[in-house]
Write a structure and sequence with these properties.
Blueprint: E1 3-11, H1 16-36, E2 44-49, E3 52-60, E4 67-75, H2 76-79, H3 88-96, E5 105-109, E6 112-121, H4 126-139, E7 160-167, E8 170-171, E9 175-176, E10 179-180, E11 184-186, E12 195-197, H5 204-210, H6 217-234, E13 238-239, H7 243-250, E14 257-262, H8 272-282, E15 286-289, E16 295-303, H9 310-335, H10 340-343, E17 351-353, E18 357-358, H11 359-376, H12 383-392, H13 400-404, H14 411-419, H15 424-432, H16 447-466, H17 480-494, H18 500-515, H19 527-543, H20 549-557, H21 563-577, H22 582-599, H23 616-637, H24 641-649, H25 652-661, H26 669-686, H27 697-702
Antiparallel strand pairs: 1-3, 1-7, 2-3, 4-6, 5-6, 7-8, 9-10, 11-12, 13-15, 14-16, 15-16, 17-18
Helix pairs in contact: 1-4, 8-9, 11-12, 11-16, 11-18, 12-15, 12-16, 14-15, 15-16, 16-17, 16-18, 16-19, 17-19, 18-19, 19-20, 20-21, 22-26, 23-24, 23-25, 23-26
Length: 703
């Protein structure tokens, strides 16, 4: 009979950012162990609060499934002699499986014939499987930081207080540190601190709700959002949306209770980002907006318990914020005493990266690179704004406000530039060169900020790769993956046409003085190739989310130096592969490629000589090819890749007739090589859009 499984780890308050990853680890390890043991089960749910991590698995089978599997032994030659009698090798193999030699069979593999046996493996009882699986699960949670307590050797995010491990109504023995499992959980620390004995896993969620704990993250988050919006409406405003803060506060409380407070309206003359950051970063307060989207002098704090004296609690929240806002005003006023331009030289005392120098050196590099990009993209008219904004772009890093709130870099640069009398375009570019800060963030609205942002990120990418600190696995301390994706988004979003490889070359040229003494590993690719391959990988992943991976690969295979053109080629080809007539076209192209790859390397360079054609089909194909080549060139230059593909598709009948009627591998050497050169030119025509040989034609037909 199937039974439910419950595992809960109770602890002192776990940091909010640890909870979701910990639950993912818990679920992954437990379900993997159950799958390995062939223990069937139903729905899996996780629960998490600051004081608990839990998993509930429904309908766990009584035992793992029985299986019959084939086991290979020694080779047939080693197992039987010339007369067919079993050798000691066969006897030992059978003895190890507790079988008679007569029960052995033979199996033919790619390596030859082997002795085999079919063995039945009984599934282990669920209790025994879970005893090991639960131990692995609770010890398999990885925390960014963990701690030890008392005299135990085990570490966890925070000291463990209790454990629950139930299979149906049966207790399972699990030990973590100095705590042994049982069936007792605990409710809200203040509202229901007493022990709660559980009869079965099904009682878990409802028992905790009665004890003032919303253990389900989704339900607790939904409750928090509902209460926040109700509180905002009651305060005459609307909630400033902040999904990250909602997620964080959800994992800071077990029972959310919003409280609306206010601050002195005189602080509204501070930049709104400062006020929001002061409330969010230190206090985890939510900001409120009026109907026009302007900041109100109100906030919402979230308590873990309903308070008896709301006014007393509110005064506490307001007193803490009052001090924070006073600090913010002090920083703002003090920072404005020194013009932003006067702070630039101080960047020479701030190290960006040990081998690549200070922020001042970085600014000097990407300022020059931004100027290069302005010329390359036809935005030379922005050169003066780019020059000035790039010079000032990092100066706010040495201000008091950004020192306190690094999240405000760029924001404060914009504000201090305005206060110092810089043109609005310069101030905006200082702010926008950080955009986009994330996958959902807006792009720069003007060229100056976009170009500086591209240059800044390219300098980082090229510099870090050049000193041998490229991302590896999940480790990406310099956020190069995000920087690369931001470059792609900006270029495509702004429609910039320039050579990516030329920009990488220029970035590396500017970095050259810093790279003079960098030693490279034997056989290691040059930084240029590493950076471009990194872009290729990001493009493949990004475009693969919306397009077939083989189509993406086909487009990237013929180049992505012009990102805008590559995206247009991808979109055109994606439409074509869905048509029923694409499979024969791809097959014809692959035939061309195969011949060229096998024979082309032996053919001397040079162009096709039409005078050498002897058969009518090859003459007709050459005429059609010449006409198509000119039209395809015109289409490609006009970015009309759909039209170019249409012209290429029109060659298919002539290509088919050529292969049906003409012997490419003729005995006459000159004739043969001329035909191979001709096929090479046809392949090059196709390759102006994509490498069709990368496309799985059979999938295209199914599509």
């Amino acid at each position: 009979m199937a039974r439910d499984l419950l595992l809960e780890v109770g602890a002192e308050e776990i940091p909010a950012s640890f909870i979701v990853p910990a639950l993912e680890d818990l679920k992954r390890v437990l379900t993997e162990r159950m799958a390995d043991a062939r223990l069937k089960h139903g729905e899996v749910r996780t629960f998490g609060t600051p004081r608990r991590l839990a998993i509930w698995v429904r309908d766990v089978a009584d035992a793992g499934e029985d299986i019959t599997k084939e086991v290979l032994g020694p080779s047939a030659k080693a197992a039987f002699d010339a007369q067919g009698k079993p050798t000691k090798a066969a006897e030992k193999f059978a003895e190890g499986l507790k079988l008679s030699v007569d029960a052995l069979g033979r199996t033919t593999t790619a390596k030859g014939e082997y002795v085999s046996a079919r063995v039945e493996e009984k599934g282990r009882p669920a209790d025994a499987i879970l005893q090991d699986a639960l131990h692995a699960a609770v010890h398999g949670i990885n925390f960014k930081k963990s701690m030890r307590w008392g005299d135990v050797d085990t570490s966890f995010a925070r000291p463990v207080q209790w454990l629950v491990a139930l299979l149906g109504d049966t207790e399972l023995a699990v030990v973590l540190g100095d705590v042994k499992s049982g069936r007792t959980t605990y409710g809200h620390r203040f509202l229901a601190p007493g022990p709660i004995p559980l009869k079965a896993p099904a009682d878990y969620e409802s028992a905790l709700e009665k004890a003032h704990v919303l253990a389900d993250l989704g339900k607790r988050r939904a409750s928090l959002v509902e209460k926040l919006h109700a509180a905002a409406k009651g305060a005459g405003g609307q909630l400033m949306e902040d999904e990250g803060l909602v997620d964080q506060v959800t994992n800071l409380v077990e029972l959310p209770n919003p409280v609306v407070g206010s601050f002195d309206p005189r602080h509204l003359d501070l930049p709104p980002e400062v006020l929001v950051q002061e409330m969010k970063s230190h206090q985890r307060y939510f900001s409120l907006l009026d109907a026009q989207g302007k900041l109100l002098p109100r906030f919402i704090a979230v308590s873990n318990t309903p308070v008896r004296d709301a006014q007393l609690s509110l005064r506490g929240y307001e007193r803490v914020l009052r001090a924070r806002l006073a600090d913010g005003r002090f920083f703002f006023d003090e920072d404005r005493r020194t013009p932003l331009a006067d702070r630039v030289e101080k960047l020479g005392r701030v190290v960006w990266q040990g081998q690549l120098g200070t922020y001042l050196e970085k600014v000097e590099r990407f300022r020059a690179l931004a100027g290069f990009l302005a010329q390359a993209t036809g935005r030379a008219g922005e050169a003066a704004t780019v020059e000035r904004a790039a010079t000032l772009s990092k100066a706010d890093l040495v201000t008091g406000m950004v020192g306190e709130f690094p999240e405000l870099q760029g924001v404060m640069g914009r504000e201090y530039a305005k206060a110092g009398g810089e043109p609005d375009a310069v101030a905006l570019a200082i702010f926008e060169h950080y955009l986009p800060r994330g996958a959902e963030d807006a792009l720069p609205s003007q060229d100056a900020g976009a170009l500086i942002g591209l240059a800044d990120r390219l300098d980082s990418l090229c510099g870090i790769f050049a000193i041998g600190k490229a991302p590896s696995g999940a480790a990406d301390p310099f956020a190069l993956r995000r920087a690369c994706l931001s470059i792609i988004r900006i270029v495509l979003g702004r429609g910039y046409r320039f050579s990516l490889s030329a920009a990488v070359d220029e970035a590396l040229r500017l970095l050259a003085p810093k790279l003079a003494n960098v030693k490279r590993k034997p056989g290691e690719a040059a930084p240029r190739e590493q950076v471009l391959e990194f872009f290729r990988g990001r493009l493949k992943a990004l475009w693969g989310e919306q397009h077939r991976t083989d189509v993406v690969e086909a487009v990237l295979a013929v180049g992505f130096d012009d990102l805008v053109a590559a995206k247009k080629r991808l979109e055109a080809l994606s439409l074509l592969v869905g048509h029923s007539d694409f499979q024969p076209l791809a097959a014809a192209f692959k035939r061309v490629v195969n011949i060229v790859e096998k024979q082309g390397k032996d053919v001397a360079g040079g162009q096709t000589n039409p005078q050498r054609f002897t058969d009518e089909p090859e003459k007709n194909l050459h005429t059609a090819f010449t006409q198509a080549r000119d039209k395809v060139g015109e289409r490609v230059r006009a970015d009309d890749f759909a039209g170019a593909l249409k012209e290429i598709t029109g060659l298919k009948p002539a290509v088919d007739t050529f292969f049906d009627k003409v012997m490419v591998m003729a005995e006459d050497k000159d004739l043969r090589e001329n035909r191979i050169r001709f096929l090479t030119e046809i392949g090059a025509l196709f390759n102006q859009v994509a490498d069709f040989s990368k496309i799985q034609a059979e999938i295209a037909a199914a599509a």
